[in-house]
């Protein structure tokens, strides 16, 4: 059994209680083989003499090496890089009017969950902060079985039919002749696919937006993309889409920040999640649902089954029905994160599928890929995948079967076992599919209502703030500048001109092609504030502030600010020229946690510039100035201690918005906390 800090955090949670029986610790134990035989020597192979050859009878060496050779399993074909955490979902109000899903029946009901965040593109060894959509998958361990809710950080998919899914991922992945570029869509194959499959336009607009460079997984929204059904006890169905809304609001990195961080700390997002949970600043997300009655969709100008279209909140309101809190880190990455298996087909009574063509394809693909990746149809018996409710069926055999069935009968119908285990009637909790009436000819086609490729991308563009539009243009310029084919760049500009001619013209000028002609821009003026993150909720809590400090600092002033930062839940790092302790004028000692060499300004949301003395004064001062200016040029807030003005060579002419000075300022502490919460000051010159 384990004895780590994680081990006892969620006592009473049924999933954690279940996992307890599988936890082991080596602390205080004797080394053994996999068969339980105690090992006497774990350093040297068995030889014929000290300098002789290895002997084939060294059974423990062969066991150790064989196991090492087989430690890896196939990585996920998409969403390969990811990380996860345990948590709990609490229902805010009963949803029995719409669904009989057990975890949504009673206000205050709590359900164990496991969440995996991931990058759509890139292999397991890529960086967390590459530009692109993120996966956000949640496994609910309910009393009626496991329910998997798979979401993305953008609300639309690249395709409206599953048949081309393999083509889309092939095009997105590194090009096959040289396996370049890694974890990037900035190459010819991807953009060739996009311009020849115009249904991807809406996805591309979102994929190039600030949404796909999240500041943190804790500050990232989730969208179900697909349309599902709620079904209540009476058998009445409603259409539903889901959202996770982060309590901290939706916030992003800049493109160059993300690229720099990718090199400095490839594990930036997973480290951020791990640290927040370890510090007790548990990530929280509210679950929202958009519900439509049967037939209500006829009044909309979009098809509710089209996964390349979103349901605007202003048209179909989001009702918040619960909150998820992630409150325990994993004990072992491989056992929990790598082996967890999500599948949109994992539903429980009260949740059913629509005719969304991408969803229909996903129902097959996920189970198939887990069979390949985990090597057996018994992957549901892996501890992280086990349900907390009993499992009884006639499934048998397969690699790594763990349960031992003691029954003679393994089929149905039977008389020897009185037909047990027996199916359950819907009134007893048996799953039954909604009896939707279906009729039509067998065709390979999509409805005409799916073929409006540019209206919603235009609405998205209209809804963005000026800064968000500039960032989107910058991302598109970056991407298309990497495309070597002139004709593909031309086609991309023509495609974008259908969305907004002005945007396309600016990008065309940057990427060296003729501006669009022909007046092809779609005539749409609608906009929806919910699509922009410019007005996102802003809190200082869990933001990271770097404190640049040297010897002989003002003990009282610095101590007061440190206390205020911690009071507001702000994470801090003390940064100086070397590790060790630094001492204030009155003898206060502070332990340095980072140095100018080991950290980088782009890892921080704000700076508190204190300064001080150093034996290498000139070098120290230059490092202080460089660090400060890098934060300043990324529009981030800076607090300047009374004697630290020399480290920030800015003036009123340079625009000091977001820079707060302590000198002669009795309100410095409050003002500094306020600008930290604001995060960015785009008006700077």
UniProtKB/TrEMBL annotation:
Heme binds at residues 76, 116, 165, 362, 366, 373. It comes from the Bacteria. Residues 32-420 form the Catalase core domain. GO terms for molecular function: catalase activity; heme binding; metal ion binding. Its EC number is 1.11.1.6. GO terms for biological process: hydrogen peroxide catabolic process; response to oxidative stress. InterPro entries: Catalase, Catalase_clade2, Catalase_clade2_helical, Catalase_core, Catalase_haem_BS, Catalase_immune_responsive, Catalase_large_C, Catalase_sf. Keywords: Heme, Hydrogen peroxide, Iron, Metal-binding, Oxidoreductase, Peroxidase. GO terms for cellular component: cytosol. The keyword NADP does not apply. Its cofactor is heme. It catalyses: 2 H2O2 = O2 + 2 H2O. Pfam families: Catalase, Catalase-rel, Catalase_C. Belongs to the catalase family. HPII subfamily. PANTHER family: CATALASE, CATALASE-B. Decomposes hydrogen peroxide into water and oxygen; serves to protect cells from the toxic effects of hydrogen peroxide. This is Catalase. It comes from Caldibacillus thermoamylovorans.
């Amino acid at each position: 059994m384990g004895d780590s800090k994680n081990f006892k955090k969620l006592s009473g949670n049924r999933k954690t209680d279940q996992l307890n029986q599988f936890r082991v610790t080596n602390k205080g134990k004797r080394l053994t083989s996999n068969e339980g035989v105690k090992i006497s020597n774990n350093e040297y192979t068995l030889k014929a003499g000290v300098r002789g050859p290895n002997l084939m009878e060294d059974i423990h060496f062969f066991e150790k090496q064989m196991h090492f050779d087989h430690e890896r399993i196939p990585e996920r074909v998409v969403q390969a890089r990811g990380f996860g955490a345990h948590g709990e979902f609490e229902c805010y109000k009963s949803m029995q009017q719409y669904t009989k899903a057990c975890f949504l029946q009673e206000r205050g009901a709590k359900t164990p969950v496991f969440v995996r965040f991931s990058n759509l593109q890139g292999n397991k060894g890529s960086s967390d902060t590459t530009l692109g959509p993120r996966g956000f998958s949640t496994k609910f361990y309910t009393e009626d079985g496991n329910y998997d809710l798979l979401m993305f950080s953008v609300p639309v998919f690249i395709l409206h039919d599953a048949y081309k899914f393999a083509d889309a991922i092939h095009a997105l992945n590194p090009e096959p002749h040289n396996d370049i570029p890694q974890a990037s869509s900035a190459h010819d194959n991807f953009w060739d696919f996009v311009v020849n499959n115009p249904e991807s336009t809406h996805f591309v607009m979102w994929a190039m937006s600030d949404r796909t460079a999240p500041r943190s997984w804790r500050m990232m929204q989730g969208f179900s993309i697909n349309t599902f059904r709620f079904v209540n006890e009476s058998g009445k169905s409603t259409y539903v889409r889901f959202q996770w809304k982060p309590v901290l609001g939706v916030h992003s990195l800049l493109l160059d920040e993300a690229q720099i961080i990718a090199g400095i700390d490839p594990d930036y997002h997973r480290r951020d999640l791990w640290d927040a949970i370890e510090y007790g600043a548990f990530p929280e997300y509210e679950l929202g649902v958009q519900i439509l009655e049967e037939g209500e969709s006829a009044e909309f100008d979009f098809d509710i089954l089209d996964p390349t279209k979103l349901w605007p909140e202003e048209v179909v309101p989001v009702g918040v029905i619960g909150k998820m809190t992630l409150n325990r880190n994993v004990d072992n990455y491989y056992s929990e994160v790598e082996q967890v298996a999500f599948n949109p087909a994992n539903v429980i009574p009260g949740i059913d599928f629509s005719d969304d063509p991408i969803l229909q394809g996903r129902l097959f693909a996920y189970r198939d890929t887990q069979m390949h990746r985990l090597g057996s149809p018994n992957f549901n018996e892996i501890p992280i995948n086990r349900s907390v409710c009993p499992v009884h069926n006639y499934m048998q055999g397969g690699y790594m079967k763990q349960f031992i069935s003691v029954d003679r009968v393994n089929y149905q119908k039977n008389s020897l076992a009185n037909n047990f285990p027996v199916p359950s009637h819907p009134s007893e909790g048996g799953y039954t599919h909604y009896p939707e009436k279906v009729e039509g000819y067998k065709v390979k086609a999509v409805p005409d209502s799916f073929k409006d490729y540019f209206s919603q991308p235009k609405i998205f563009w209209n809804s963005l703030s000026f800064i968000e539009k500039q960032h989107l243009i910058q991302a598109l310029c970056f991407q298309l500048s990497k495309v070597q084919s002139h004709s593909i760049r031309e086609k991309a500009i023509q495609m974008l001109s259908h969305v907004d001619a002005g945007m396309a013209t600016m990008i065309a000028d940057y990427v060296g092609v003729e501006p669009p002609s022909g007046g092809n821009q779609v005539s749409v003026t609608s906009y929806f504030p919910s699509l922009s993150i410019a007005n996102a909720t802003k809190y200082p809590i869990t933001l990271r502030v770097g404190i640049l400090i040297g010897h002989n600092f003002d003990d009282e002033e610095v101590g007061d600010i440190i206390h205020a930062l911690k009071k507001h839940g702000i994470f801090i790092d003390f940064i100086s020229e070397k590790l060790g302790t630094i001492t204030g004028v009155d003898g206060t000692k502070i332990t340095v946690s980072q140095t100018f060499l080991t950290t980088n300004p782009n890892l921080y949301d704000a700076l508190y510039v204190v300064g001080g003395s150093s034996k290498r004064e000139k070098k120290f001062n230059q490092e202080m100035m460089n660090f400060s200016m890098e934060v300043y040029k990324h529009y981030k807030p800076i607090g300047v201690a009374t004697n630290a003005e020399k480290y920030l060579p800015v003036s009123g002419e340079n625009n000091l918005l977001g820079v707060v000075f302590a000198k002669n300022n009795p309100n410095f502490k409050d003002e500094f906390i306020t600008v930290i919460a604001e995060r960015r000051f785009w008006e700077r010159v």
